[in-house]
Amino acid sequence: MEGKRWSQNVSLFLVIFFIPLLFHELQASPEYSRPPPRRIIYTPHDRPDSHPQQVHISLGGKDHMRVSWLTIDKSVPSIVEYGKISGKYESSATGEHTSYRYFFYSSGKIHHVKIGPLESDTTYYYRCGGFGDEFTFKTPPSTFPIEFSVAGDLGQTEWTAATLAHVNKTDYDVLLLPGDLSYADSQQPLWDTFGRFVEPYASHRPWMVTQGNHEIESFPIIHTQAFKAYNARWPMPFHESGSTSNLYYSFDVAGVHIIMLGSYTDFNSHSAQFKWLEADLAMVDRGRTPWLVVLVHAPWYSTNTAHQGEGDSMRNALEELLYKARVDIVFAGHVHAYERFTRVFDNKANSCGPVYVTIGDGGNREGLALMFKKPPSPLSLFREASFGHGRLRVLNRTHAHWSWHRNDDSDSTVADDVWLESLSKSKLCEETVKAQIPSVSLNDEL
Length: 446
Ligand SMILES: *[C@@H]1O[C@H](CO)[C@@H](O)[C@H](O)[C@H]1NC(C)=O
Ligand SMILES: *[C@@H]1O[C@H](CO)[C@@H](O)[C@H](O)[C@H]1NC(C)=O
Ligand SMILES: [Fe+2]
What we know:
CATH class of the largest domain: Alpha Beta
CATH architecture of the largest domain: 4-Layer Sandwich
Domain Purple acid phosphatase C-terminal: 353-416
CATH topology of the largest domain: Purple Acid Phosphatase, chain A, domain 2
Structural class: alpha+beta
CATH superfamily of the largest domain: Metallo-dependent phosphatases
Helix content: 10-25%
Pfam families: Metallophos (PF00149), Metallophos_C (PF14008), Pur_ac_phosph_N (PF16656)
Shape: globular
Number of domains: 2
Number of strands: 24
Number of helices: 8
Distance between the termini: 58 Å
Domain Purple acid phosphatase N-terminal: 52-139
Bound molecules: 2-acetamido-2-deoxy-beta-D-glucopyranose, fe (ii) ion
Radius of gyration: 21 Å
Oligomer: single chain
Signal peptide: 1-28
């Protein structure tokens, strides 16, 4: 039966393959050449239709986890049973379900169930829908230290498999993904293969994502509503953070306030996102969350020739808000390479501005963005076009260690690392950003 389902998926895939792909390729930028990408891995559906597949978890507000999964069988209830002992589920919770259509594609039943309150730094065992495999996850700690893995522009290729295997070698707490997940690019069965591909990792640790251009998937006249699959499959705690859109939200975890912004929805000063961001930043208490981290998709600072200037309008709209709030780090994806900047504000080195990092090198099917601008900018401290992932270990209120791990084929090698100090402890920066005087202006134009 699964074989038949699979062949149906494949034929649907072929029917709807060409038009959207052509449309997508026309949008792609032609000025740089990428190396041969590695093969896509099509992870098959090999469980009974009533069993959960594509299980993934995300932080769902204070002390809660959202469990998301899909069943082909529409009669399966949206229930999660869970507990601290394997096979013994003391608690259960019921949630909601959704499904969507896209051209001739019709999704399975997509379930989302919030469970909790959960204890911090604790292993839980859980089962979805009353059938099938048991899964397990660990909740993040409530205090420092905490470790984040950061990987953008993932896709589902052999490179992605290498990246995720390396990510899984550390006992990290939360994965942060600055956009571009499945690279389905309108081919909806690829969202299902992606869900199955990441399940061993995303069911094990919370994955917190924001959207990239590959999630838009709107199509003139027929599918004008953007982010249909993304919003149905990867809901994030936007409601819990006072946002009205799944495209931007925030959350707190162990002394770190993390803001996920939307590069592909309105961000100008009259927009809902701008107003939400302003209000969210105003509520940040650096006594409680000394670290402030922001993720976007299209980088605001980049010296790669790929996608030059695509983040400029968003930077112009929002950079001052982030600077005044003394944001510590801004992670971006989109450019398929790694790059780390010094602290920057308004195109100049500024010791009170955020450190900017591009980490769009998770391993997708498009390959790497090899070309960097010459001569190098003094603001850009490290840049390299290789696949890999990052680790942010926040040790205490003041110190964090950032490292970038390059995929040397099957091995993972630390290629760049740096100690970071939180801006929350700097009285000088607090005064400086209020007065909006750049504290250190080296006149290093990008
Ligand atoms: C990830 O790491 C954990 C702990 O070391 C291990 O049990 C698990 O099998 C790994 N997952 C995959 C998919 O390799
Ligand atoms: C924070 O961690 C850093 C790095 O390990 C250490 O040097 C520093 O003393 C720690 N600060 C506090 C207050 O524990
Ligand atoms: Fe992108």
